[in-house]
Design goal:
Elements (H helix, E strand, L loop, with lengths): L7 H9 L5 H4 L52 H4 L2 H6 L5 H8 L5 H13 L8 H6 L9 H6 L29 E2 L5 E4 L34 H13 L5 E4 L9 H13 L5 E5 L2 H4 L2 H5 L1 H16 L3 E6 L9 H12 L4 E6 L8 H13 L3 E6 L14 H11 L10 E6 L4 E4 L5 E3 L4 E6 L3 E9 L7 H7 L5 H11 L6 E3 L2
Parallel strand pairs: 2-3, 3-4, 4-5, 5-6, 6-7, 7-8, 12-13
Antiparallel strand pairs: 1-2, 8-9, 10-11, 11-12
């Protein structure tokens, strides 16, 4: 009988009479060097029951050759699959390629559904073999990874009436193409417009990837002249201390370009923090292990930054534990050993991570492999992905459950990136939230003290009364005015997308 199974009186008696030793309760520790002195210590009586196995699931990592269940990859060796060049060369970039790779795993009806979904999507299709292999093709409609990257027409619903293509107004705050300067001490630098995969929900669908049937993109191709214009602007603004290098995706920068951009930024005296942003560890973690030039470039920038009293870190983007495998664990372990700080920025997505159990497991798994859960974003208003958005109420409730489930420093901040350029607001910090109309009102005094910003819940998740009002265009401005007045913000300029 274990300590946790005993009644309080029995535990007290057992402890008093010399209860079980560490070696008896945890024999796996006998071979652990450094614990010899405690192996025969009597274990103090437990006051709480042992944690159920489900709470430790975040420690389990898939070390199998999981890609072999995909017909197109069943003959691929481990050595080949773990080569970043294989991942790049064999990226799936069309529905025809996806159908060929999946073969017998999916029905023709599902492929037709994908074709119809892609016809309306603002993002191209691009999937790494790793990403394809992490999806459950036995249940493709509910798989949390498929939902993020492969659209199906049968799940698409109309966009919110207030949606705009660049909902965060990044281009409005761009002094030069590919550079956004919104906060006085921070800037966003976009050196390229390609990614190792294309997320359906990408906020930058106005620029990232090639043109689609629905969107003609603003181009941000790699260009040293454009880069130098951005660097010159940053050098001329002494108030800027923090720069995010994103895109596109920094994973797609050749090592030499990553070094060039990083070293230019580090050479600017007033820049103290550089964040290299990439989805890469979630969709092609083997690059960190096999693209030695790129990893050395990153480590070199981190080391130079440390010598100069500056921080260079990696910001990445996991949304679900299923994206994480033993390969991911090994890649993150390498970066941790080399002193690289890695932070995660997730997005709250309907059917992916919008429950307390799923989000809590993700947060714990990230923490277990030394990735700091930094942000969870309320899903931005992005075209043709309304089926992926959740309500502010849902996100706030998930946050309540996650907070307290692990250490505070490993608990992400749940935020709304206020549409119209208000920046990140804690999801609970609204001045008013109407659950019937789905309108929440936020202020961002440090960005624009004279403005109020509105976020809109997806209409299909509203109560009947709210859906009926949004179905009537004459009600739209009335609902907004009501929310702004209730927030006490009628004297402010209202930004609503």
């Amino acid at each position: 009988m274990g300590v946790s199974e005993m009644k309080p009186g029995e535990v007290t008696l057992l402890a008093r009479e010399g209860g079980p030793r560490v070696r008896e309760i945890a024999p796996e520790l006998i071979q652990v060097s450094g614990l010899e002195s405690v192996l025969d210590v009597v274990v103090p009586a437990a006051l709480k029951p042992s944690a159920p196995a489900a709470l430790l699931r975040h420690r389990e990592f898939d070390d199998s050759e999981f890609w072999r269940h995909i017909p197109g990859y069943e003959a691929i060796s481990k050595e080949t699959f773990l080569d970043f060049k294989f991942q790049n060369k064999h990226s799936v970039t069309s529905v025809d390629q996806l159908e060929k790779v999946l073969g017998r795993l999916v029905s023709p009806a599902f492929i037709d559904d994908v074709r119809a979904g892609m016809a309306r999507a603002p993002m191209n299709l691009r999937l790494s073999p790793y990403t394809v292999s992490r999806m459950d093709w036995n249940e493709p409609y509910t798989d949390p990874i498929r939902i993020q990257f492969v659209p199906v027409a049968s799940h698409q619903i109309p966009d919110h009436p207030r949606l705009t293509l660049d909902s965060l107004h990044e281009q409005s705050d761009a002094p030069t193409p590919g550079l956004t300067h919104r906060y006085h001490d921070k800037a966003l630098f976009l050196p390229l417009d390609v990614c190792p995969v294309y997320c359906r929900f990408c906020t930058r669908s106005y620029a990232i990837g090639g043109d689609t049937d629905t969107v003609s993109k603003s181009r941000l191709k790699p260009n040293s002249e454009r880069w130098h214009q951005g660097i010159a602007y940053l050098a001329s603004r002494p108030e800027i201390e923090d720069v995010v290098v994103s895109g596109g995706d920094a994973f797609m920068l050749p090592a030499a370009h990553l070094e060039t951009i990083g070293n230019l930024l580090l050479s600017i005296p007033h820049i103290r923090r550089i964040r290299i942003a990439t989805k890469g560890p979630a969709v092609a973690p083997m690059k960190i292990l096999s693209d030695h030039d790129w990893t050395r470039a990153l480590l070199g920038l981190v080391a130079r930054g440390r010598r100069e009293g500056k921080e260079v870190c990696l910001h990445t983007h996991f949304n679900h534990s299923a994206e994480i495998s033993g390969i991911t664990r090994d890649a993150m372990a390498l970066l941790f050993r080399e002193g690289v700080t890695v932070r995660n920025q997730a997005v709250m997505i309907r059917g992916v991570n919008d429950t307390p159990a799923v989000m809590t497991e993700l947060v714990r798994r990230l923490g277990y492999m030394n990735v700091h859960p930094y942000y969870v974003y309320q899903h931005d208003l992005v075209s043709q992905v309304e089926d992926m958005r959740t309500t502010v109420a849902t996100t706030a409730e998930v946050e309540r459950h996650v907070r307290g489930s692990t250490a505070g420093f490993n608990t992400p901040t749940f935020v709304v990136d206020a549409p119209g350029g208000g920046g990140k607001r804690a999801v609970h910090s609204f001045d008013h939230y109407d659950r019937v109309t789905g309108i929440s009102v936020y202020r961002s005094p440090a960005v624009h003290a004279d403005q109020a910003y509105l976020y809109f819940d997806p209409v299909d998740l509203l109560p009947v009364a709210g859906r009926e009002r949004w179905a009537d265009p004459a009600q739209h401005e009335k609902m907004i005015a009501e929310a702004v007045e209730a927030a006490g913000c009628s004297h402010l300029k209202v930004i609503s997308g």
